[in-house]
Amino acid sequence: MKKIATFFLMLLIAAPAMARDDFGFRFGLKASPNFSWFRTETRGWSNSGLDLGFSYGLIVDYEFAENYAITSGISILRTGGTMKYRYMYDPGGQNLDTEKRRDHHLRYLEFPIALKLQTSEMGYITYFGKFGLGLGFRLQAKADDRIDLSDDSTLRTKDMDISDNIRFLRAALIIGGGVEYNMGGRTSLLGGLTFHNGFSNVLDKDNPFPDGAAPSAVNNYVEVTLGVMF
Fold it and tell me: Cis peptide leading into 210, omega within 30 of 0?
């Protein structure tokens, strides 16, 4: 992660020196539905379903050379996923070894930064690809829990605050691509597909089962971006 962050820092420093007068900043707005899930290698924990999320916000592109730009911005991200794991349910000291299914609903303030490579305009269309980093800062963390008991009954809890169980920072690698359709001048419609490959553990609570190890899971999502650039 440090090497990647250093690369983008050096790129930001060098970009003004490479800039030409006919390039500069472009701004845009985006709305992006996403499909998110967890990946874990912790024993006794497993992914148990996708979550449908959404993000919206501001896009900032700094074009520093022909066909090259640094793309960033700020957005509100809603992501999540479902995991299940062994759980100690303790009604009145009975210490029942059971399983919990938790639907996570997480909200972050996200700051992406990526190198954007784009083709020259062909007709009205420009194609682009991008690679970079995404940093998310937790705004809210809630969950719906389901515990299956031994007597075939189910205990459900809705809309729990689990902020103490979710780490404040989320980090991911970003890779994606898309197209821009020129509407005239510097205004264009934007469409794209981006994969956010999480690499930081988002969980922040020890799990007593099965071996006392702290659980670890990363949050991934694929988003479809629709927007307009100015």
Answer: yes
Type of residue found at 213: A
The answer to whether residues 15 and 32 touch, using CB atoms and an 8 Å cutoff, is: no
- Is there a contact between 208 and 98 (Cβ–Cβ < 8 Å)? no
- In the chain, which ranges are continuous DSSP H helix? 2-18
Cβ neighbors of 148 (< 8 A, separation 6 or more) are 98, 99, 101, 154
d(CA 24, CA 20): 8
For 59, phi then psi, to 5°, come to -105, 135
pLDDT of residue 6: 55
Count Cα atoms within 13 angstroms, Cβ side, for 217: 28
Please give the structure tokens belonging to residue 121: 């305009």
Alpha-helical (H) ranges within 76-124 are none
The tokens for 207 are 């799990």
- Domains in the chain (CATH in brackets) are 2-229 (2.40.160.20)
Helix (H, G, I), strand (E, B) or coil at 162: coil
Residue 162 in tokens: 């689990």
pLDDT digits (tens, 9 = 90+) for 157-184: 999 999 999 999 999 999 999 999 999 9
Name which of 225, 2, 1, 3 is nearest 116 in CA terms: 225
Average pLDDT over the chain reads: 87
| Tokens found for residue 160 | 């729990």
End-to-end CA distance of the chain: 32
